Amino acid sequence: MFKRFTKEEIHSRSNIKSSAQRGLKSRFIDQFPDVEEVVELIIPKKSQIILIKCEEKIQLYSMNEEVVFFQSFDDLIPHLKVVHKFPQSFPRVQVDRGAIKFVLSGANIMCPGLTSAGAKLPEENIPVDSIVTIYAEGKEHALAIGKLTMSTDDIKSINKGIGIELLHYLGDGLWNLTE
Amino acid sequence: MAEVVAKEVLYCKVCSFPPEYCEFGVSLKKCQEWLEDANKELYDQLYSEEALSHKFSNTLSLEKQEKIHAELAKKQLKEEAKQERELQRKLQSKITIKRIERNRRKHVITITGLELLDVDLKKLAKQFASKFATGATVSKNAEKKEEILIQGDVSDEAKKEIEKILTDKGLEGIEIEQIDDKKNKKTPAPTTPGAPATKD
């Protein structure tokens, strides 16, 4: 999504209303229930969020000059820097070492990369279309964020084709975006 | 509920990744140098003999591992060559400071060629404006290139300022050229005696 993304694609920036900010916060919690305890740290009460509208209906929400999360259609997706700060708040999957290189150049994640020996999927099922943070074998920090194109149970049983559609990864246009 | 604190994450100054991902970036060597300087502890953890040998004992087969590394190394070499070329190109270009006379005593200066500094020109203009206490804007010149226009004769000061930025960026080699552009309206040019004659 952000493979090619530069400042030119930003159309407008505007401050959002505090009521909209509250709504945004609750939507964020709805999507990631575990975020609730840290949401005040991510978005303090008195902060001002700036909405940045971009090409292809992408909307970025930034606070203090840093993008906090972004939205494409209905999903709110945290920026990787936020994920790095609060790793425990988001559902996580892990890919094996061989996949890192491809993920970092923006490839979607194939099922075998999620089921092999070095990879980890959570025990419980994560439903299709959820946003997950992607970790790598032997690494501490997340390297990408994606959307499941099949539930994790399906990934385990089918084990073929695209399992996660990649949305945001280390080194993509959004990561390199500085204001 | 336990208080949750934001986790501090160190990011590589060279490639902006968390250091553990530097090996997949395009500037591994520089990243290593930086990390050794900035955080010796983590450097040892990531790049020591022990850590390197540990890497090979994981799930991937040795062949695959080597293949990946070879490819990464190739990519990194390419990137290095590219950066080298870029630097050469940069060193050959120059920054021009032009002083233009508006009337007898007043001047404006334009600075062109600043795009190779990789900075936001608007911000730089603002910086100049507050530094010299004059107006400064970014405008496009005849060749459709961005230039900074500063009111007042501050070309020497501007030169010093730009030199400072260049040393900060490690680009001392770039030449700065100062040009005086006088308006020759009132003093008739010596080459024109023939021209008016043909007009009559």
Please characterize this protein's 3D structure.
- The complex is a heterodimer of chains A (about 180) and B (about 200).
- By secondary structure, chain A is of the alpha+beta class.
- Chain A folds into 2 domains: about 5-85, Sulfate adenylyltransferase; about 85-170, Sulfate adenylyltransferase.
- Helix content of chain A is about 25%, strand content about 30%.
- Chain A contains 6 helices and 10 strands.
- The relative contact order of chain A is 0.17.
- By secondary structure, chain B is an alpha+beta fold.
- In chain B, helix 2 (about 40-45) runs parallel beside helix 3 (about 50-55).
- The termini of chain B are far apart.
- The chains are: A alpha+beta (about 180), B alpha+beta (about 200).
- The interface between A and B is medium-sized, with 28 and 24 residues.
Radius of gyration of chain B: 27 Å
What is the H-and-E element order of chain A?
EHHEEEEHEHEHEEHE
As residue ranges, the low-confidence spans of chain B are 186-200
Number of helices of chain B: 7
Q: What proportion strand of chain B?
A: 15-25%
- Strand order in the largest sheet of chain A: 1-2-3-4-5
The number of helices of chain A is 6
Q: How much helical structure, as a percent, in the residues of chain B?
A: 40-55%
**SSE ordering of chain B:** HHHHEEHEEHEH
CATH class label of the largest domain in chain A: Alpha Beta
Mean pLDDT across every amino acid position of chain A: 83
Largest contact between chains:
A-B, 28 and 24 residues
- Estimate percent helicity of chain A: 10-25%
Number of domains of chain A: 2
CATH architecture of the largest domain in chain A: Roll
